[in-house]
Amino acid sequence: MKIKFKKPSSIAGLITAIVLAVLLILFVGAYSKREAFSSFDLFGGKEAVIESQNKDTDNDGLKDWQEDLFGTDPTNPDTDKDGFLDGEEISSNHNPLVKSPGDTQIFYPLPLGDKYNVTKKVLSDENLDTLFASYFSQKNQYLDSNPQIDSQETFSANVNKSTISEMWKRALGDLYSVLTEKAITELETIPGVFDITVIDNDINISQDNSKEAIQTYIDQVSAILYASNFFLKEEASTAITKAFEEDDFSQLDTLIKENDARIEQAKEIPAPSTWKDIHKKGLELTLLVRNIYVALRDVYDDPLKAYIASNKLEEFPLTWNNLMGQAIDLASSQGITISLQK
Questions:
Q1: What pLDDT, in 10s, does the model give residues 256-313?
Q2: Does the bond joining 270 to the residue before it have cis omega, within 30 degrees of 0?
Q3: What is the pTM of this model?
Q4: Which of 86, 99, 231, 324 is most exposed, with the fewest beta carbons within 10 Å of its own?
């Protein structure tokens, strides 16, 4: 399927603005410095949304919305009643829906929870010191330009709140590149997020390479790719845009759940051995785009990973279409004509 999907231009700005706001809130919350600038509107009205999205009703280490994606009970900390919290099972590569023993986690689990939280791994006291140093440098420059302000009291009384807010945003902006570079490095140590490898044992390989078997395989895969809300269709783009413009993630959650089920379905399709490499690459890319969507969904808990995900989403269509070109060429060499335009 040659895709027309294109990352909406508005998403880049939305993601960056949200990431900056959430990072500042995380800094403030983590180091109890909130009182230093609590009277200023630094966060763009996102605090209530963040509080809602980070709600964990049963205190099991999974947010309520994450439990919805995993299929666990947000009011029961141990859904499968095996003595282990749902969040603990996710973090230790176990399935919270199946009692131990024998509860090996599903094929490439959703990259959620502390195990996959890049932002928490990257934040440090050193980052906070850098943030405040940048802010106070800007503040001193402001004071040098306004000698009539001779005390903290007159500064607080006379400086416009938007000026203070802008200083903090610029301070975080100065730190942003450092944090994103550290996040990229951290992600390299967490396989299964954006670096995905599917091996032969992960798929169902068939030795039947007859024309009929190959056509059946193509038809089964196409049924998934042509689904109206497959990750690469226009509906997916709409779901992302709506989620961040309206703070309504219901459609995006449905999209992730339904496509996660399709991934399980795709890995069980009998793939003729001559198609196994393309099938594995297709699964890898489908898992990648799923994880991109999940990372974007998780922006309020892991903003740095979401930012990196937004960049990867920009690059994705070209990579996918290159693979589809290879599929067309392989089918042609086997005497099969397929049109992946739809």
A1: 999 999 999 999 999 999 999 999 999 999 999 999 999 999 988 898 999 999 889 8
A2: no
A3: 0.84
A4: 99
CA distance between the termini of the chain: 7
Burial of 47 by CB count in 10 Å (0-12 exposed, 13-18 middle, 19+ buried)?
Answer: middle
pLDDT at 34: 47
Whole-angstrom distance, CA of residue 181 vs CA of residue 175: 10
Give residue-wise pLDDT tens across range 69-120.
888 999 999 998 888 888 888 887 788 888 877 777 777 889 998 889 999 8
Gap between the Cα atoms of 99 and 102, Å rounded: 7
Cα dihedral angle (228, 5, 214, 224), rounded to 10 degrees?
A: -30
Distance CA 44, CA 303 (A): 15
Length of the chain: 342
CB atoms closer than 10 angstroms to residue 21: 23
Report d(CA 52, CA 55) in Å as an integer: 5
**70 φ/ψ angles, rounded to the nearest 5 degrees:** -80, -20
Tokens 């450092």 belong to 178
Tokens linked to 201: 């044992």
Q: How far apart are CA 204 and CA 268, in angstroms?
A: 5
